[in-house]
Amino acid sequence: MESQEGGRRVIIEGVKPEIDGGRFPIKRATGDKVQVEADIFTDGHEAVACVLLYRKEDDPDWSEVPLTFLVNDRWRGYFVVRDIGRYRYTLQGWVDRFQTWRKDLKKKMAADQDVSVDLLTGAALVVAASSRAADGDCARLLAWAEKLQSGADPEKAVRLALEEDLAELMARYPDRRRSTTYAKELAVVVDRPRARFSTWYEMFPRSCTDKPGSHGTFKDCEARLPHIAQMGFDVLYLPPIHPIGHTHRKGRNNAPQAGPNDPGSPWAIGSRDGGHMSVHPRLGTLEDFRHLLARAQEYGLEIALDLAFQCTPDHPYVKEHPQWFRWRPDGTIQYAENPPKKYEDIYPFDFESDQWQNLWNELHAIVRFWIDQGVRIFRVDNPHTKPFAFWEWLIAVVKKEFPEVIFLAEAFTRPKVMYRLAKLGFTQSYTYFAWRNTKPELVKYFSELSQTAVCEYFRPNLWPNTPDILTEYLQMGARPAFMIRLILAATLGANYGIYGPAFELCENTARDIRGEEYLHSEKYQLRDWDINHPDSLKDFIARVNRIRRENPALQNDGSLRFHPVDNEQLICFSKHTEDLADIVLVVVNLDPRHTHTGWLELPLAELGLDPHQPYQMHDLLSDARYLWYSGRNYLEVNPHVVPAHIFRLRRRVRTERDFDYFM
Amino acid sequence: MESQEGGRRVIIEGVKPEIDGGRFPIKRATGDKVQVEADIFTDGHEAVACVLLYRKEDDPDWSEVPLTFLVNDRWRGYFVVRDIGRYRYTLQGWVDRFQTWRKDLKKKMAADQDVSVDLLTGAALVVAASSRAADGDCARLLAWAEKLQSGADPEKAVRLALEEDLAELMARYPDRRRSTTYAKELAVVVDRPRARFSTWYEMFPRSCTDKPGSHGTFKDCEARLPHIAQMGFDVLYLPPIHPIGHTHRKGRNNAPQAGPNDPGSPWAIGSRDGGHMSVHPRLGTLEDFRHLLARAQEYGLEIALDLAFQCTPDHPYVKEHPQWFRWRPDGTIQYAENPPKKYEDIYPFDFESDQWQNLWNELHAIVRFWIDQGVRIFRVDNPHTKPFAFWEWLIAVVKKEFPEVIFLAEAFTRPKVMYRLAKLGFTQSYTYFAWRNTKPELVKYFSELSQTAVCEYFRPNLWPNTPDILTEYLQMGARPAFMIRLILAATLGANYGIYGPAFELCENTARDIRGEEYLHSEKYQLRDWDINHPDSLKDFIARVNRIRRENPALQNDGSLRFHPVDNEQLICFSKHTEDLADIVLVVVNLDPRHTHTGWLELPLAELGLDPHQPYQMHDLLSDARYLWYSGRNYLEVNPHVVPAHIFRLRRRVRTERDFDYFM
């Protein structure tokens, strides 16, 4: 035991945030606060002082900020993360003998007790502090000590002893020899702001031509950029752009045999034209791709690529690295299956291969290759079918060099698995949003995402549709249903996306109404989309996305709170900035067919409103303004006009007292 | 990275119980179950197998039990702790390729697919398992493999492949090379059963004489043993029995000056007659004490001593070890104070002393001294005013040699501090019970103690009174109040105690009704108690304690559940054994003055009752029997008769169908 060990009397426990005992980092974006709480206390009744320590991970020196006492031994403090990368934080506490002495002295004074010896004790503490002090302060402290122990004028000495100046000076030079440092250095991954707030548009490049029946190219994609940018998106996600295999290629509507002109699924990667580091020849060249990247940037759009780590039987890896696949006793390679379903066009990698280290390195090389082309966002296909350890390693290795890279986990699977992927490093995650349609479902799920520790590491990215998911709700609900789901995605989530043009054109025909596949799915064939169709939701989407951009309240997930409405079809929730300068209240009618009315209860005090003053609700969708007074308010929403309100709450309402002549 | 590291695909997380990330052990008594749950899963859709590993701490070899799947990736298993001391537990999981293969084979069969290659794959798995198998099993497995790959009769081969015998045999020889072991070895402290279930009686030896005015002795205590044993107690706790200081000795009713015959407070330890390893001469000799110990044992009573680590100015330590105290600038030793209160008769130890290691060792020597006399239970005075690290060390050192020792923490302080003391090793803890009198208070506090992780490490010991605490409730409520508080203590807590004879004689006169001190407190003077007074609660206490002994349901804390009654003065709760063989339902009228009635709602299914069958409620206090039918039942409790029911629930009620001739 160290010589001071027995004297370390301060306990630090119950630290929040701390994910799985510190095993995983929390996530933040630059400019965010990291607010830390802990139970900090000592034996006896002495005063405790404590600080929050933080540093950038590769900076050996800690910065510190004082913690503020809340109640019941709980303390809180925060720091702001300014740089992208990783930070560390921990806590330190110690018994503050000077504060204890000062507190006791006050009580003794109040009880008219003799404090002459206490003054000497205090002087000794001040002398001791002077030895830890900078030059000027050292002299000041010694002067104070002198006065405290002069003994000539006890009343004056006591008055001096309690002066704030002395307390502040002493607080600068505490005796921290016996301080307790929390045993863990907890980590923060700091991303760029787009990790926290992003608006995605998914599009198949091969279907974006204006010439019906022809295979779209990267050049055609460039022509679509204005359309996408005008709708207010900032990430354009492309399904895999690599050569597509021929062996067991799927035909239209997932037919087991492809016709001679069927293009195959973009997720069936690899042919004699190359694999994961090649571009499908009919889309263009690598140079064309880089040109698209540059053009997109001019429109404020960032291109996200798909990482689908699997091969067709035609992929060059199959010949070059047969050890990366699982071999069956009949000398064939094990194709993907989920019995009784067979995916003979796909060979999964065998991560239990003896050559797993080579395999990991090659997959890393793929990511590096696209980073070198300028890509910084990846949507990862089915990460839950590859080992967790692999992702933790890959993301760490990539982000060490390129901390600005964003990985979106496309895992639609059980909750523990989805959360684990987020904990181990995925920047954003797909969610169950597509299947949460009723008020109780939405409230329960989004309360879990926003108001529990999940919020520290899981950044939801909400998609009302994807090429795999045309939900029952959209199949049945027509245009109002698309508007409802768009508003929910765009306001419940700081990150959301749509798969277009299917979405803005309200495409809702399923291959089979018992399933969620699109009829004539783009996964297996080219599609022509009339993006300028008069029924397109593009202007509505543009309006919603502008509201998101203009209201920082909608750019975070953690402030989400639901408010009671006495109608199960009307859902109401608010989000706000930390300083309550921007408060947005959303009311959605979940029923795409009927008008609903109800009474809403708002917690005015929590929203920083004076319950005795009127306030203005400005509907940013319709531009209508309402004057509300109490927390209880009437709502009426007709889904055939607009199925929602997105109110900005304006605190100040003018009255006669605002006129110059009122005084 | 190890060669298998990349192939370890199973994740283990969300382990319960696990206190503060494994920093502290959980607590059990011999014969208890340790039930462990965890989230265990892998990537993809393969089957997972997992086990719970446990061992005695000094046994290098793990035992293992399989875990059972619950839902949502959650698994559960348990082991029973048979020996006193410390155990460790952890978990291990792996991908079970044989189970995966078997599951897939079934699905393929159901879909009428060709499985000839699958049979070869299965045969290879069986051959591989044979190399891990014991001699006989090895041959059996090879025979199975032979049959699977014979190819002659595919239908037969498939039938054989799915046989349970093969699955069971394979389960014995899994491939665990790539298994994941949970990163922590969690600890269990296993105590003897008295740690979980004990009934305490606190008594001042010096007041237990039958000769009014004379100082009681250990011999007099012996004469009291039958009285205490008849009431059903099993621990007799004595306040400090050491020499009492003279300097600044307190007089009757805590007067600042003691009169010439005032005996002083037993907690003011140390005089020229000795310190913490000496016996107060007027109580007798060390030999007398050992004799009392032996006599108590004959009555099933275990003596608990008080550990009050503080000294009077007359304690030998003050001269022998001046460094163990804090010196003031005027050359005096710092006495205890809680400004403006001064305790000049008490010198606390200075745990920040440079000589802290000597001090710790000496305090350990004190405990060892009394262990050598035969004491195995200690009630620790104010542990929250000494460093946490000291207690953690002391308790660990003592229990390493004497794992049967029980430490009760007498800390009445803030919740985090109380819980920390329990976590770091105290076997039992005083609680806020004395100040929880209303139904909402009791429900909230005891739900926290019994239904959260607190239950894993904090064993409440409930005291309706102590020499320091005569609550308002007891001051005001007279005899029914004492009965109410006794029943609550004895049934809400598996461990409880009373300070007698004040309690059984319903002594309720406070020194000052604004406080909780007894008038003529035994802390400062001798008292004569008429233990055979006709109004004594001794027979009632004996009855309640017998009910506790006879009903194992009342010997645990974790099964406590509250049940709704539509009257705020009637509280109802149940406790049960794990197998529901013993279920006790307690109903208490919290109002000591008025009869109350109400309707109770019982969750029959949870209590293992058929909601369509009547059941019998046997009131163990009154011996009355009631026939109840549904979960909704009428209650009426008159506090002037007995303020409670303690029902034993008897499941079986005889009907005409039980008669021989019914058939």
Short structural description:
Chain A is α/β, with parallel strands linked by helices and 663 residues long. Chain A has 15 helices and 30 strands. Helix content of chain A is 28%, strand content 23%.
Describe the 3D structure:
Two copies of one chain form a homodimer. Among the domains of chain A are: about 1-95 and about 185-190, Immunoglobulins (Immunoglobulin-like, Sandwich), CATH 2.60.40.10; about 95-175, Phosphotransferase system, lactose/cellobiose-type IIA subunit (Methane Monooxygenase Hydroxylase, Chain G, domain 1, Up-down Bundle), CATH 1.20.58.80; about 560-660, Golgi alpha-mannosidase II (Immunoglobulin-like, Sandwich). Helix content of chain A is about 30%, strand content about 25%. The first copy, chain A, contains 15 helices and 30 strands. Chain A has an eight-stranded parallel sheet with strand order 20-19-18-13-12-11-22-21. The longest helix of chain A has 21 residues, at about 470-490. Chain A is globular and about 105 Å long. Chains A and B meet through β1, α1, α2, α9 and α10 of A and β1, α1, α2, α9 and α10 of B.
